[in-house]
């Protein structure tokens, strides 16, 4: 793009933001005097939010720009403007937030107040341990549970499935549960459903692993929620590409987010990256050199742990590759 084109785009975006802000302020001015209410963000597209109140009723809301990024799962305070319409006036503190860097390198929130991150893998496309470990590091750093789900069990016979599951058995050894599921087999979802109960979960995984099939099987009413947001906001088909919070019959909640098909860790330090590999904890600080890179230094506690079988070679390899990427980003 030329400088003139960039300036024109920036001016258009600025004008659009001004119009949206004016619309929000006018909505507040037109609103009757009412108590501020608590709500939960079910979905967001642009300046449009679908907020659920304590009674389980959904309301189409706008929000002020100075509140920052509001995302699916956020808890908010909002005021009524008209029937089923409102304005969000405050963002309540988050317990957790899953983010990823945008194109400029700044962390962009994807979902808030989750308690469990579910990594979905499948025989095809061939899973990558590197991406899996990135997801697991993110789970460790934001302080949520992590679960690895092997999907499409119906594509393999018993022996093939055993071999496939064996590739990831080392994750169970360090405390990450491993469950096999299929959206196409009778009772094929039960192992996953049991893990979803009482949690606010988000499914992550590369494109093609069957996330959408799992979501559709787990949430029969998914289209109703998407349709409700579409009707409330007038956004039509665009609502199929936004994160949406769904409620499960077993008391669990699940966030369907197209934004986590690809994933990169944000701006973290090397020390934070080390802490993202939970099995490293007993050995950190025990290397012979305080600035050990864990590559080839004598007396490296992580290398010795790998040789003894306490750390899987692939996990250390993936850590080193991530550390290298951190250095490139600086």
Care to describe what's here?
With 330 residues, the chain is of the alpha/beta class. It folds into 3 domains: 3-91, Beta Barrel (OB fold (Dihydrolipoamide Acetyltransferase, E2P)), CATH 2.40.50.140; 111-260, P-loop containing nucleotide triphosphate hydrolases (Rossmann fold, 3-Layer(aba) Sandwich); 270-328, Orthogonal Bundle (Ribonucleotide Reductase Protein R1, domain 1), CATH 1.10.40. It is built from 10 helices and 13 strands. The protein has helices at 3-30, 129-142, 158-166, 169-173, 190-196, 211-218, 222-233, 270-275, 301-307, 313-328; strands at residues 37-45, 48-52, 58-63, 75-82, 85-91, 97-101, 107-112, 116-121, 145-150, 178-180, 200-204, 244-247, 253-256. The strands form 3 sheets. Strands 10-9-8-11-13-12 form a 6-stranded mixed beta sheet. Strand 8 (116-121), helix 2 (129-142) and strand 9 form a beta-alpha-beta unit. Helix 2 packs across helix 10. It is globular, with a radius of gyration of 22 Å. The two termini are 26 Å apart. Mean pLDDT is 84; it is low at 235-240.
Short key terms for the protein model shown above:
single chain; 330 residues; alpha/beta; OB fold (Dihydrolipoamide Acetyltransferase, E2P); Rossmann fold; Ribonucleotide Reductase Protein R1, domain 1; 3 domains; 6-stranded mixed beta sheet; 5-stranded mixed beta barrel; 10 helices; 34% helix; globular
């Amino acid at each position: 793009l030329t400088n003139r084109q960039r300036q024109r785009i920036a001016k258009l975006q600025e004008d659009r933001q001004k119009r949206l802000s004016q619309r929000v302020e006018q909505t507040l001015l037109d609103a009757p005097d009412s108590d501020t209410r608590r709500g939960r963000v079910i979905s967001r597209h642009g300046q449009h939010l679908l907020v659920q109140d304590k009674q389980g009723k959904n309301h189409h809301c706008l929000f002020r720009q100075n509140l920052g990024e509001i995302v699916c799962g956020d808890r908010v305070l909002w005021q009524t403007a008209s029937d089923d319409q409102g304005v969000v006036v405050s963002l309540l503190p988050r317990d957790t937030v899953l983010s990823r860097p945008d194109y400029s390198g700044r962390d962009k929130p994807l979902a808030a107040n989750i308690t469990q991150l579910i990594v979905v893998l499948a025989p095809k496309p061939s899973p990558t341990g590197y991406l899996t470990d990135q997801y697991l590091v993110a789970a460790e750093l934001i302080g949520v549970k992590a679960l690895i789900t092997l999907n499409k069990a119906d594509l393999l016979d018993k022996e093939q499935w055993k071999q496939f599951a064996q590739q990831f058995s080392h994750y169970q050894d360090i405390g990450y549960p491993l469950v096999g599921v299929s959206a196409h087999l009778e009772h094929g979802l039960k192992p996953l459903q049991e893990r979803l109960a009482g949690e606010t979960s988000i499914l992550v995984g590369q494109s093609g692993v069957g996330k959408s099939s799992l979501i559709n099987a787990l949430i029969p009413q998914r289209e109703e929620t998407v349709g409700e947001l579409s009707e409330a906001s007038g956004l039509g088909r665009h609502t199929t590409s936004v994160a949406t919070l769904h409620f499960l019959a077993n008391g669990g909640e699940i966030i369907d987010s197209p934004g986590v098909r690809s994933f990169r860790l944000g701006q973290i330090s090397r020390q934070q990256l080390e802490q993202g590999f939970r099995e490293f904890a007993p050995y950190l600080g025990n290397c012979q050199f305080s600035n050990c890179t864990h590559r080839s230094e004598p007396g490296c506690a992580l290398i010795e742990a790998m040789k003894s079988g306490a750390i899987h070679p692939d996990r250390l390899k993936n850590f080193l590759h991530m550390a290298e990427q951190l250095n490139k980003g600086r």
